[in-house]
Design goal:
The chain has 195 residues and is of the alpha+beta class. It has five helices and eight strands. The two termini are 42 Å apart. About 3% of the residues have low confidence. It binds iron/sulfur cluster.
């Protein structure tokens, strides 16, 4: 059985908060979602709000970050309706901004490594990861570097490595990655935002 928001208010008024609605055979998922929304809007009203700009692309959409004054933590990020560029709207990347904060329990926080042909993930430290990446890049580039093309023209390019940018790379990081990739002679450089 489903319950509407109006039904929820009537039901909570009738049975009081001490009684679990599920015991009445009601589907309380919408009720929970609505209660969460109510809680969130209450917190939003009491929050410190800070405006900022999305870092992901040159559109430069405005964001409002709501900070819980008690914990000092951001608990909501949404489009700024008063911003002249986006007027409150955000693309999927901007709309997912909150998931980049520490509130997202699924964020990757450690290095996980799986050996070639291995089946298990192993936990490693960043020194291991960076040394291994550097080794593989050097070895691959040394083998695949092309100084001159078939016509004898100098091209100095590395065709054996490609770089594919992540959706969580911002403008400045994209610039750095492109400069680094070009310096290595890479020609296959792309970014998730183009897909
Ligand atoms: S919300 Fe989307 S369109 Fe706006 S600046 Fe961020 S990435 Fe660009």
């Amino acid at each position: 059985m489903e319950i509407t928001r109006r039904g929820f208010l009537i039901a909570t008024g009738a049975v009081g908060s001490g009684v679990a609605l599920s015991t009445l055979g009601l589907n309380i998922d919408p009720v929970r979602a609505y209660a969460d929304e109510l809680d969130k809007s209450r917190r939003l009203r009491a929050a410190k709000q800070v405006v900022t700009t999305c870092c992901y692309c040159s559109v430069g959409c405005g964001l409002i970050c709501s900070v819980d004054k008690t914990t000092g933590k951001i608990f909501n990020i949404e489009g700024d309706p008063e911003h002249p560029i986006n007027e409150g709207s955000l693309c999927a990347k901007g709309a997912g901004f909150f998931d980049l904060t520490e509130a997202n329990k699924h964020r990757l926080t450690k290095v996980l490594y799986r050996k070639p042909y291995g089946l298990e993930w192993e936990e490693k430290d960043w020194d291991f990861a960076l040394s291994r990446i550097a080794r593989l890049v050097k070895d691959t580039r040394d083998k695949g570097f092309v100084e001159r093309n078939a016509k004898g023209e100098r091209v100095n390019r590395c065709e054996s490595i490609g770089h594919y940018g992540s959706s969580n790379v911002d403008n400045e990081e994209c610039w750095l990655i492109t400069v680094k990739s070009r310096a290595l002679g890479l020609v296959y450089i792309d970014h998730q935002a183009r897909v």
